[in-house]
Structure formats: C-alpha cells, structure tokens
C-alpha cells in the first residue's frame, strides 16, 4: 500500500503543474521558457542530491540510454506537449497525454513481461474514459492531424518515464538518473526558447514548479514505482487531472460540468480497482528497497 501512497502524492504534486505554469504565463513567460527553467533548475537540484549521496556516476554502458531519455523524456515530452496545445488546445492534449497508461501497459507487456489480466484492462479503460470526461467536459475541441500526432507523441514520451524507471531504478538512485537527463533536456530546449524579462511572480511560480512538482514529485513517484508494477503506477498517477481540476476550482472558481464529475468518478474507480491485488500478483524484486535517504 505504501507504494500507492507515494504515487498518489506525486500525482497531487503534478496536478499543480498547470496552475503554477498559469501564474508564470500571466507574468509574460512562454510555455517553453517555463519548461527550460524547470529542467535546468531541477537538474541542479538532482545533481546536488546525487553529490550528497555520493552516487553521481553512471556506468558507461548505461550512459547512452540515460542521455537519450533526457532528449526524449524531457525535451521531446515538454516540447510535444506545448505544440499539441498550440495545435489542438488543452482539452484534446490532455486526452492524448493520458493515453500514457495504455502505452505503458503495451510496452510493459513487451519489455517487462508484466501480465495483462482482465482487472488491469478494466482499470485502464476506466481511467482513460475518466480522463476524457474531465478534459472534454466543456467547450469546443479543435481537432487537427498535427495536434493529434503531437499529442500522441506527448503520451508516448510520458509513458517512457514508467518504463525507464523500472529498467534503471534497481541500479541507480532517482537523483542520479535525473542529474544527467534534466540538463540534456534543458540544452535541447534552449534553441527553442525566447527569453523574457524576469519577474518575481514568474520566478516564484517556476521555483515552486521545480521544487514541488518536479524534484519532490519525481523522487516520490519513483519511490512508489520501486514497489509497484509500471502499469499499476501509471493508472494510479492518472488521478493528477482530478487534482488539477480541484486546484483550478479553488483558485479560479473553475467548475466541473456533469461529464467532468463522471470522469473524476471513473478515474477514482480505476485507481481503486488497480489497488486491489489479485491473488496471482507478484512483487517486483525491487519492491522491498527503501525510499531514498533524503525522504
């Protein structure tokens, strides 16, 4: 159960990304500018953390994969999400982003040999339908081939976080992996960024986004992933859009429509279904590993 709590905590922190980013945007910063500083500052935090633990080195055989994840899991993920929003709007992008659990289930079956039973399939369907309900509850949705392709790219690259963690967490600390991946992602984003004058509200929002929704969220999430199957963690993490909607309601008075409430209920049902253990479920070999020393 502790693994699910870690993943839920991370999802709550990730649910603040939208509201915090909105504060930075209101100060005149662009989405790619926020993404660049988020990756840069998070890379610094993870690097200091890895230094404190004395676990900075990555084996030469693993270095290409870790650096490639920085390009795909940080730079391409951040950029594709923003391009999808530009082409098809936030609602459609959110739906396509949260195809991630389905991508995880497919990739986990291929690469991690995780079982795909009826309960896991039902949980996936419920959460995907729930996210669609939360995201499409109101307003017109712009549909374009470009937006769909970028949105699916965002969902696929988001799914790689789960698979990457499962493959490399048994050998490395979370901080070690992201100390390499984040700076690579930031450098890849740099040519795309148009910088604007710094303001106190923008920097405050980015610092909260970096410390809470990136640094602490990734440490907490990967601590949970050590104890869970990738598909189960991916499904539980889809509580994030419900958290984001709740924060938006409290901060700006944004309300769910009937379809939104139905979607939230479906997501929570999927999470509960995921948490229920089947008799045949086995524990990942890394399941008994302790949480990182810093938490």
Model regions low in confidence, pLDDT < 50 over at least 5 residues: 278-295
Helical amount: over 70%
Order of helices and strands: HHHHHHHHHHHH
Note the beta-strand portion.
under 5%
Give the termini separation: 17 Å
Beta-strand segment tally: 0
Per DSSP, the total helix count is: 12
Q: Mean pLDDT, as a whole number?
A: 80
Radius of gyration: 18 Å
Largest sheet: none
User: What would the principal axes of the Cα set say about the shape?
Assistant: globular
| Count of distinct structural domains | 1
- Helix and strand content put the structural class at mainly alpha
Describe the structure.
The structure is a single chain. This protein is an all-alpha fold and 295 residues long. It has one domain. It has twelve helices and no strands. Helix 4 packs across helix 6 (118-135), helix 4 (63-97) crosses helix 7 (145-168) and helix 4 (63-97) crosses helix 8. The longest helix is centred in the first third of the chain and has 35 residues, at 63-97. The relative contact order is 0.22.
